[in-house]
Amino acid sequence: MSIERPVLVSVMQFEDALTSGAMTVFDVIDIAAQVGADGAELRRELWNGWESQLDAARAHAQAQGLLLTYATHATLFSSDAATLRGDIDAAAALGSPIVRFFPGQIPADDATGWAAGTAIADYAVEKGVVIALENYARTPGGTLAEVQTALTRIPTLMTNFDMGNYSLHGQDIPAAAAALADRIVSSHLKDQTGQPSDPPTVLGAGVLPLGDVFDALDSLPQRVIYCFEFRGGNDAVARIEQSLAYLQERRA
Fold this sequence. Notes:
Elements: E1 7-10, H1 15-20, H2 25-35, E2 39-42, H3 50-63, E3 67-75, H4 81-94, E4 98-102, H5 113-127, E5 130-134, H6 144-153, E6 158-162, H7 163-168, H8 173-180, E7 184-189, H9 210-218, E8 225-228, H10 236-251
Parallel strand pairs: 1-2, 1-8, 2-3, 3-4, 4-5, 5-6, 6-7, 7-8
């Protein structure tokens, strides 16, 4: 939708179909083009055969002028180094500018975990990939303070700002965006119903203060990649189009 705020669909919208084998990530990329999105977020957890399909997925997206990003469930301070490096390599092969990791347990001040996390961040820099550390929906690693601690200790880290996850922790979402400011490189877009047990929903269908949240995000001078992160249910395309319409109306 814009160079500064490209909007992506996610494999999250097609989780059931991908898990059952009814769809592939190539279908998701095609749908992104069909609905007028700027690209797609891929994840190895929902991608059978991802190791052998990275180059093909990159070519498939490039042929349609689409951006790919990469997100996994790996945790920077808890997952093994081989897994983290493999995810960074996959992001680089896809041409993704970022790789989304969760923090995991933030190391103690005297722990060797900081050295290990810094080594992974340095490896990402070598590969031309930015680690976008996301505030996790649960604990550990979900609060603003935890994310800020990691970003302060490892300056090359950036953050994927998940508006719904900050809400789940009872934190002020616009204030969190303002606090993280220039470290935000991407954002997962969603709404919440207000019931903690309910999954995220489409933009405008919940209770989050989306106007204030987008005011904070849109005021940032840097490029921020927007990505829908909610399940598609029985009509994923319609839910994506509803959220695209919300953004278009906001920008009109």
